[in-house]
Amino acid sequence: MSLIAASGRATAQTVSGGGALPTSQSASQSRAQAQPQMAKPQSATPSTMGATTGQPTPSASASKIDLKEDAAYKAFYDVPPSKTDELIRQGEAFLLSYPASEYRELVYSRLAQAYIVKQNYSKMEEDGEKALALNSNDVDALALLGWAIPHNYDPADPNAAARLQKAEDYLRRALQILSTLQKPATISAEQFAQLSNDRLSQVHSGLGLVYFRRGQYAQAVLGFRQAVKLASSPDPIDLFVLGESLQQIQQYGEAAAVYDQCGKIPNNFQLRCQDNSRQARQQAASQQSSANHANAVQSAAKP
User: Fold this and answer.
1) Which residues fall within 8 angstroms of residue 189, CB to CB, at 6 or more apart?
2) Is the overall model pTM greater than 0.70, yes or no?
3) C-alpha torsion sign, points 193, 237, 208, 210
4) Where are the domains of the chain?
5) What architecture does CATH give domain 14-297?
6) What's the chain look like in SS3?
7) Per-residue pLDDT tens listing for the chain (303 residues)
8) 8 A C-beta contact, residue 203 and residue 178
């Protein structure tokens, strides 16, 4: 739906070597700072979108929501995603004041998005897992966790393979839910389509990076192609890693075109994308020259 603030603390080499990937702020806005719709206590269903469109809403089976609690949740909801520190402050205060609130899944899920903006991965995972413990069908939490884990990856971690599998499981589950998602009454069909596509883009981006980390480059290409196709604004990191994956499977012409697209977007890897585009074009020319030579030799060998 980035790791997230464009801090610049990771270099391009962290893509293949592990570590946290930076992305542009525009990509982070679309993927991890989605503004939730106001959720009122009503029957929860597994088919509602997560924080992006109103999340699975609290059940009305428990006692009536306290008016102060309701007002506190609305105040938290009203904090714009760009005000990350204030969002975190109000969210944590709400959970302290109302630890048994039926809104806490909504709060945990949105806090997870805020913490990834701050590059606080441990808190992001902690709150994302808490949201899933309350609702295993929280598609935003599933997508965010599955997408973030391979972005913040350490190949030296003895649990690295297990963490990638965990990410893939979350993303596969998110795909299942998104395939049956129904439009909430609070948004238009056009809004719902865009939100769904952006969430699907995030899921395919996460899957692409899981495969890339495993060295399964052909599968990574499929994931990133879908991520770029579905995104309302492609994440330059998706383009960059798609280019690297294409080079790994010797699809140099397409790699050059992808790097060209990445190189036109202001981002931490912009210059690297431009350099890689030139390299990929040279590789494509050499590949074509070798193919032409092989064809000429084969033709000459014919009686």
Assistant:
1) 183
2) yes
3) negative
4) 14-297
5) Alpha Horseshoe (1.25)
6) CCCCCCCCCCCCCHHHHCEECCCCHHHHHHHHCCCCCCCCCCCCCCCCCCCCCCCCCCCCCCCCCCHHHHHHHHHHHHCCCCCHHHHHHHHHHHHHHCCCCCCHHHHHHHHHHHHHHCCCHHHHHHHHHHHHHHCCCCHHHHHHHHHHHHHEECCCCCCHHHHHHHHHHHHHHHHHHHHCCCCCCCCCHHHHHHHHHHHHHHHHHHHHHHHHHHCCHHHHHHHHHHHHHHCCCCCHHHHHHHHHHHHHCCCHHHHHHHHHHHHCCCCCCHHHHHHHHHHHHHHHHHHHHHHHHHHHHHHHHCC
7) 222 222 222 223 345 555 556 544 444 444 654 434 333 333 333 333 544 444 434 444 445 668 999 999 999 999 999 999 999 999 999 999 999 999 999 999 999 999 999 999 999 999 999 999 999 999 999 999 999 999 999 999 999 999 999 999 999 999 999 999 989 888 999 999 999 999 999 999 999 999 999 999 999 999 999 999 999 999 999 999 999 999 999 999 999 999 999 999 998 889 999 999 999 999 999 998 887 766 767 766 666
8) yes
